[in-house]
Write a structure and sequence with these properties.
single chain; alpha+beta; Aminoglycoside 3'-phosphotransferase, Chain: A, domain 2; 2 domains; seven-stranded antiparallel β-sheet; six-stranded antiparallel β-sheet; 12 helices
């Protein structure tokens, strides 16, 4: 890669000023924008790197931009902005807008990930372990990145963006950026050191070293092997549901895969014991989230006392001296975070955790029941979204998953019902708030679980 192809420029504020009116319209429409429902009042530039010179036929900027909104300190987003005189028809869906003033006046700007050349630039930089201003492109020296891999952007809805390179690699670019060690890189690297085959080992990664990060890097993206022909668990479950097919064998295999990952993480990273004080804080946090959810979604109000009992039962056990072991876990495990290869082998992906939560919280040790509860909720989601709903299918899958987990871990999660109920109830409350804000037509799915959790101590 030539020096001319990758260079950092000192960007004047005029660049962001010229993009401001276009970004105000475009950014809130993106699936990964976290501040929906609140107006964008302005932007500030965190970092700007010119990856392809804008004087040419195609320019490319890498931007880290902070979007300011009322009642927030402003989230930082990673943008890859392509610059052309005019867009060819195949890039029309990627249009951001036409710049009317400033250094890019008269040019058209667009989401560059949809364009093969900018996507190639990123892979070339990772292969070369390039240093471009604040950007650091790193890779595992033992893994080869071949040239000539044709890129294509993945169009599925997600909280980040991904590019597949020739069915060999997938580059996940984080959109909402925070400083610090990101578990989406940290945990797969730790699992690779342990030789755990259930998680694709990182091949390369992209970071930014910025003055405002207090010495902490920003993790911007991770390149991993692409599991060719794989189906994600959510798609597979819905397909089997539609055909009326049994899914318990897959659920059992997925339980074993989850336990293998948990076992490897426990070996790779420190575990802690949660005593009365820590468990009291855990239960209080769940109760606090319930209160906030009731305020946000009033239809939860009649169920609040019953839901709260799941959390007070956990606190009561803690007060009696019960302890639990906490370790690093996936943090946002569900069927969509699992891939089944054509050979039938399950892998776990996307270790970022819940992006809406602070990074420090996402990196805290948690009881493995947190992940188990997320998967159990996912089986419930799939069954209740089917037409007609299939609650019996969900119950069979839940039992098979826990049995598979026990085959590897040596303990069945169902033997700890108070902890599992608390985590599953907490997850269902989170789902209610999410669906009410983003997909109200899906709200009946978690509400059906809420009604069940509020009236019984059985999950």
């Amino acid at each position: 890669m030539s020096e001319a192809a990758l260079r950092t420029v000192t960007t004047s504020p005029a660049l962001l000023t010229s993009l401001d009116p276009l970004l105000r319209e475009w950014l809130p429409r993106q699936r990964w924008f976290a501040g929906k429902g609140r107006p964008v009042t302005g932007f500030s530039l965190v970092s700007a790197t010119e990856l392809l010179p804008v004087e040419g036929r195609l320019g490319l900027y890498h931007l880290l931009v902070r979007a300011h909104q009322p009642m927030t300190s402003g989230d930082c987003y990673q943008l890859l902005i392509g610059v052309r005189e005019a867009l060819p028809p195949h890039l029309a869906p990627a249009l951001i807008g036409h710049v009317e003033e400033g250094p890019l006046a008269g040019r058209t700007v667009y989401e560059a990930l949809h364009d093969p050349r900018p996507a190639e630039v990123l892979l070339e930089a990772l292969r070369a372990r390039a240093r471009i201003g604040a950007l650091r492109f790193e890779r595992d020296p033992d893994q080869e990145i071949r040239t000539g891999l044709v890129p294509r952007v993945m169009t599925a809805e997600q909280s980040n963006s991904s590019i597949v390179y020739g069915d060999t690699f997938i580059l996940k670019l984080l959109r909402r950026i925070v400083p610090g060690v990101n578990p989406d890189l940290e945990l797969p690297l730790a699992l690779a050191r342990e030789g755990c085959p259930r998680v694709p080992a990182p091949t390369a990664w992209l970071q930014a070293d910025l003055d405002d990060a207090a010495g902490e890097p920003y993790v911007l993206g991770v390149l991993q092997p692409f599991v060719q022909g794989a189906t994600d668990g959510w798609e597979l479950a819905l397909r089997e549901l539609a055909k009326g097919e049994d899914f318990t064998a897959e659920a059992r295999s997925l339980g074993r895969a989850t336990a293998e990952v948990h076992t490897a993480l426990a070996r790779a990273l420190p575990s802690v014991t949660l005593g009365h004080a820590q468990l009291r804080l855990l239960a209080d946090g769940m109760i606090e989230r319930l209160g906030a959810a009731v305020q946000a979604v009033p239809s939860l109000h009649p169920y609040a006392p019953g839901l709260r009992s799941a959390f007070t039962a956990l606190a009561d056990l803690a007060a009696e001296g019960r302890t639990w072991t906490a370790q690093r876990v996936h943090g946002d495990l569900h069927l969509g975070q699992c891939l089944r290869s054509p050979a039938g082998r399950w892998s776990l992906i996307d270790f970022e955790g819940e992006p809406s939560k602070p990074l420090a919280e996402r990196r805290m040790p948690q009881p493995p029941a947190r992940d188990v509860a997320g998967m159990l909720r996912s089986f419930d989601y799939a069954a209740l979204s089917a037409d007609p709903p299939a609650p019996g299918w969900a119950q069979a899958c839940r039992a098979a998953y826990c049995s598979g987990y026990a085959e590897v871990a040596g303990a069945d999660p169902r033997t700890d019902p108070v902890l599992l109920r608390a985590y599953e109830t907490d997850k269902a409350i989170y789902e209610v708030v999410y669906e009410a804000r983003h997909r109200p037509e899906w709200l009946p799915v978690p509400m059906a679980a809420i009604e069940r959790y509020a009236t019984t101590d059985q999950i």
